[in-house]
Predict the structure.
Amino acid sequence: MTIRAIRRGLARVVTDAHLVAGGFGEVTAKHFYPDSLTGPSFCVGEYEVTTSVDFKNRNDSYIFTCRAFVPDSDAEAGQDALDELLEREGNASIRAAIDAARGAPGEYALGGAADDIYTQSVRNYRRYTFGVNTFYGAEIRVFVIGAGAE
């Protein structure tokens, strides 16, 4: 497992789900923070590493802080769209898309990039300034463990 593979895998999962944020259009997913955003977006951001979680120096665990953003051009519609993206389930749910990438029992997650992943929490729902634009957004913390199919 590499951090790069996990970051790219998380963005790919959201892209492949073709999530639509209300009337704002399809979510654009990035495995990094771009210089600017123009519409509904998902970005994989900073991460924490806990080393050697299996006491054999084989596996690390990670918590990736991802963020979902929706333009704030319409306060009510923007927050409604963000709420849909943050739901546990549904056609617009980022959490459902990520959790679906866990794989079946005994299979690797994120197409082989990790042993397992799950959405750990959603927090910091607020207005964010990104470049010159403002967005409604929230953090989605994703727990990742294991070496995957190295």
